[in-house]
Structures are given as C-alpha cells and as structure tokens.
Specification:
The protein is an alpha+beta fold. The protein is 22% helix and 25% strand. The chain folds into three domains: 81 residues, Alpha-Beta Plaits (2-Layer Sandwich), CATH 3.30.70; 338 residues, Peptidase S8/S53 domain (Rossmann fold), CATH 3.40.50; 130 residues, Jelly Rolls (Sandwich), CATH 2.60.120.
Length: 586
C-alpha cells in the first residue's frame, strides 16, 4: 500500500512480512503483532473527528500533530482522509545515556559476571544541586538514596543549620529528605527541604553518574546512569556574589565536606566536579589545585573533573619567543563589551618587553617590569596592569591586564599585545581570556591555539581529568578542553581519558529527560565508572587499595583507542576512551 502521504519507511514496513519486520532493527518499531495495530504519528489540518472514527486511540498534540494507535487494515482509509497530511511510524531512539554506557563498557560489568551497580560506594556531586524528588534518586521502596545534601545557597531557618564545622548553608539529612518525600503537597515538601536545582545542571550530572532511570517507569534501564545503586552525597554550591556563579572557595568547602562525610560513613567516594575556569597558570600550582591534590590523599576517594568546553573558543594563545624576533598577538573586542582581562604567563627567566596597542593606535608600554599595579588610559578604556613575580609553587610569571570601561563599554576593535624579547632562555608563553560564556560573541584572539585549553581545576595532578567525545560517531568533541604534554618544561598528561559528552540524555529537574552536551556530562560517566571499580575492589574485597591514583591507573589501562589518533597518550584524548570492562579484565 504505497502512498505519498505515508513515509517510505512505513510503506516498506507495511509491505514487509511479520518475519521480516521482526528481523529488522526499524521496520517493527511501532507494530503490535498481537493486535495487528500500529502506533503512528499524524500531521493533520482542521480536526481529528474522522481520525477518531478509524483509530483505536488518539492523543492530540499541539500544532496539529497527533499520536494514534490504529489497526493495520485501516491505515489505507486513514491516508485517504483529506484532513490527514502525512503519516510516519515511530523510530527507535538510541538515548545517549544508554549508548554512553555501551561505548564506555558499563553494560558488561553489570551482567551476572560482575553485577557492579555502585553498592557500598558514594557518588558525590558538587554542582548546582539536585531535584531530590525524582524517582531516579530513590530506591525501589521510595526512600531517598541521598545520604546528605548540603545547600550552600540557603540561609538556615528555624531548626535548620549548616553542616558541623561550616558556617554557610543548610544541611539536610537522609531522614529529613525522606520526610519531605512523604509530603502531600509541593509547598509542604519545600517547607521540609527547601533545596532546589534551579539550573538543572547538577540533576543531569547526578542522573548520568548515578540515576537509576526509574523516572521513566518500566523503561528505566534505558535511562539508568552508571552507578544506579550507589549512595549520593550532594553539595549545591553557593553563589554569594549574586551572579549565578559559585566561587572556588565554595568548591573547596564542598570537596572537603563530601570527603569528610565519606570518612564518617566509612564508605569509598567518587567525586564529580563539572565546574572550572580559565584563570591561572594551568600548571597545577594554584591553591585550589593543590588543595585538591592534597585532599586526594585523604580516605578512599577518587576525584573526576571535566576539562571544560573552551577548546573551540578563542580564549587561548600560546607560542615560543625567539631572540631578536617581535611577536604580536591580536584579539578582537566586540561592541558593548563591558570589560575584559588578559592573562600573560611566561617563565621568569625570560626577559620580555610588553606593550599594548589599542584599536585607535594608542600604545601603552613597554610596561615597566615592577611588582605591583600600573594604570593607563586608552580612549574609553582604563587599563589596570599587574606585573607579577613567581609564586612559591611555580616558576611561571604572570602579567595581568584588566580592561575596564571609563563609561559603559571598553573600546571595540582589534587590540594588539607586542612581545619584544630581550633575554630568552625558555621562550614559552601562554595567554588566556575569561571563559567564553562571559564574553560577547566574537570577542577573542584572532589566531587562537587549543593546546592548553583545560579549565582549572582539571589541571590538578591527582585528579582524573575527563574530556569528551561523541559516543555515536566516535569523533573527538571539538569543544573539549585539551592539554599539552609539555608545560613549563614538565611532561604531564591531560586529559587522562575521554567519555561520551555529546547529546547525552539526562534527567531534568522537574522530571523527564533531555539531551545535554559538554565535558560536564562526560565527567559523570567517569565518576560513575570509578565508583564501580571501587565497588569491585574495596567493597567486594578484590583490591582494598583501589582508590585514588590506582583508579586512574586502571582507567588509563582500560581506555580504548579512538579513530584518528595513533599515539597515546595525547593532549586531545589522553589514554583514550573510557572502558570500565577493560579496566577490570586487562
């Protein structure tokens, strides 16, 4: 029964035998062989009165679409209706959480041989919070899997308090959350536990790492995360500045809190951090990075951090200075850019004259190599410059340029930074702009480089740094922050591994599922995978020392190669793609 109102695939399916449909990956989708009926999508005009006369079931959608169930013998009558414009059969959706589990070799370690689901291990999510009401984060009896929730953004009400030892926010216990889940109304629930994930970012991350998919009902396996039976520790980071962004101090407190909680419960913990920034020398020596490295030595923990989404932005430039050769770095500032800053990092042994030239040709510099602030004016832009010295933890030297408006906006156009070598030993330099998300579109370096676009703190040495790739095409994600095998003379591999991070279907705050992309959503695959390894090693006694750097070693060893890369490790994908099964059996 061919017809132009009926899509080709449906025409083919209607012409096929039932045996052919059963063997096909697509032709039997939507067909009920017992009832000999089809679930179909109909685009129509007017009303559905005539369609309802033919169909067994009609679900009217907005904008003149409908999903119907109709016996196969009546489809030709349906197509003949003038109100019906087009008919399609449903298609199988390969949800990226399910596909991400497959390509990350999660499914094989959840069969009868290993049966690893995260039991006895905490997954800690330090992010924008969590929708604790979702079934995805509850056990089969309806009680919460969240053992502790610290919302740093809340002010304590009567009967509420921060965690012991901390001065901000409100801590909710497992018992308090369970009481809220029993509440009959959202208002009552909010009175008992007021924490909300307003952005949905943390809920999505938690769903990928440890959701059980039960928000999808009987189809829960398709939506389940990596460690669906793990306990959860959740920190909603505060934003005291009021701009929607937490500070590194809140992050540090959050890490401290979850490690202490894991120690209190005597359970291993896999920590997920999907936050980062571009400020710093990117050599692992900031206090945040060092703090994370230090706390990685405490208890049985493993910290996974996303490498950020800055590789495809224009926020980084690197190069090598040569004696007697001037280097000019250009960056564009779009109209209505309220402010901007540029970090210049170089080795302290190199002596370089640095000048800044405005779009109108006003030249500032060479700036004086003196410790402390310097101020200049170029048109409507005020320049605050700080010529720094090395810290006790790094040989790198920073020259920081802050561009602020004298009225509303800084001067737009192409600015130039001129580097004139005077005495070069190393010659290596790096420059960074703020993260792309806070800049006007088009503001950035004219000739950017992507060799060191990891966001901090994924640059910490002892963490598992996670980049992203497409789990369907196996292509490296161009936005994924990447490292360099040579930074300030050291050989450090970043990222460690990559995981699926393109069009991942994840739980959404308020219920349902949606597609998300970014290293934020690749990281929880690794964090969940680390939890499974620790369950196998620590909880089941196969390797009581499987935490920290040893988890990283296991994940590196099991990583799979990706098309287009012949040498491993490399700055794009590190040791390769996450594969938990091979990490266990290799």
């Amino acid at each position: 029964m061919a017809g132009q109102k009926v899509e080709n695939l449906l025409n083919l399916a209607l012409d096929a035998t039932e045996d052919e449909r059963e063997k096909s990956l697509q032709l039997d989708i939507g067909y009920d062989p017992i009832e000999r009926s089809w679930e179909l999508i109909v685009k129509y005009s007017g009303n559905l009165d005539r369609v309802r006369e033919l169909a067994e079931q009609v679900t009217e959608l907005m904008n003149e679409y409908a999903v119907i169930v109709i016996r196969e013998s009546r489809i030709s009558e349906l197509a003949a209706l003038p109100q019906v414009e087009y008919i399609e059969k449903p298609k199988r959706l390969f949800f990226q959480t399910a596909d991400g589990r497959r390509v990350s070799c999660i499914d094989p370690v959840q069969d009868t041989r290993f049966s690893l689901f995260g039991q006895g291990v905490f997954v800690a999510v330090i992010d924008s919070g969590i929708d604790y009401t979702l079934a995805d984060f509850c056990s089969t009896d309806g009680t919460t899997r969240i053992r502790a929730l610290w919302d740093q953004s809340l002010r304590p009400r009567e009967g509420e308090k921060p965690p012991e030892g901390y001065a901000v926010g409100v801590e909710y216990t497992e018992e308090m959350i369970n009481e809220a889940l029993k509440a009959q109304t959202p208002a009552e629930r909010g009175r008992l536990v007021a924490s909300r994930d307003t952005s949905g970012h943390g809920t999505a991350v938690a769903g990928i790492a440890a959701g059980n998919g039960r928000g999808a009902g009987t189809d829960y396996r398709r939506y389940a995360g990596v460690a669906p039976e793990s306990g959860l520790l959740v920190v909603k980071l505060g934003n005291p500045s009021g701009d929607g962004f937490p500070r590194t101090t809140e992050l540090m407190m959050g890490i401290d809190y979850v490690v202490r909680k894991a120690l209190e419960y005597q359970m291993p913990v896999s920590v997920n951090i999907s936050f980062g920034n571009t400020y710093g020398s990117h050599d692992g020596t900031s206090l945040l990075e060092r703090f994370i490295d230090d706390i990685s030595n405490v208890w049985k923990s493993c910290i996974c951090i996303g490498t950020g989404n800055e590789a495809a932005s224009a926020g980084h430039v690197s190069g090598r200075l040569m004696d007697d050769r001037e280097t000019v770095i250009e960056f564009a500032v779009q109209e209505n850019q309220p402010s901007l800053n540029v970090q210049i990092w170089k080795e302290y042994v190199d002596v370089v004259d640095i000048s800044l030239i405005s779009p109108s040709g006003i030249r500032i510099g060479p700036v004086q190599e003196i410790l402390g602030p310097q101020r200049y004016v170029a048109g409507q832009t005020e320049i605050l410059l700080y010529y720094g010295e090395p810290s006790p933890y790094s040989t790198a030297q920073e020259i920081y340029i802050d561009m602020i408006p004298r009225e509303s906006y800084i001067n737009s156009g192409v600015w130039r930074i001129v580097l004139i070598p005077r005495d070069i030993v190393s010659g290596e330099f790096q420059m960074w702009l703020p993260t792309e998300g806070v800049l006007n579109r088009g503001t950035g370096f004219l000739y950017p480089t992507d060799n060191l676009t990891l966001t901090i703190p994924s640059t910490a040495r002892r963490v598992i740094s996670v980049g992203a790739y497409n789990g369907l095409t196996f292509a490296y994600a161009d936005f994924s922050g990447r490292g360099s095998l040579s930074r300030w003379g050291e050989n450090i591999v970043k990222p460690d591994i990559v995981a699926p991070g393109v069009d991942i279907t994840a739980a959404t705050a308020g219920g349902g599922y949606a597609a998300v992309s970014g290293t934020s959503f690749a990281t929880p695959f690794a964090a969940g995978g680390a939890a499974l390894l620790m369950e196998w090693g620590i909880v089941r006694g196969n390797d009581p020392y499987l935490y920290g750097e040893k988890v990283k070693a296991y994940l590196r060893r099991g990583a799979r190669p990706l098309p287009g890369f012949t040498e491993y490790p490399n700055p794009q994908v590190g040791y390769g793609a996450l594969c938990v099964r091979d990490s266990l059996i290799n």
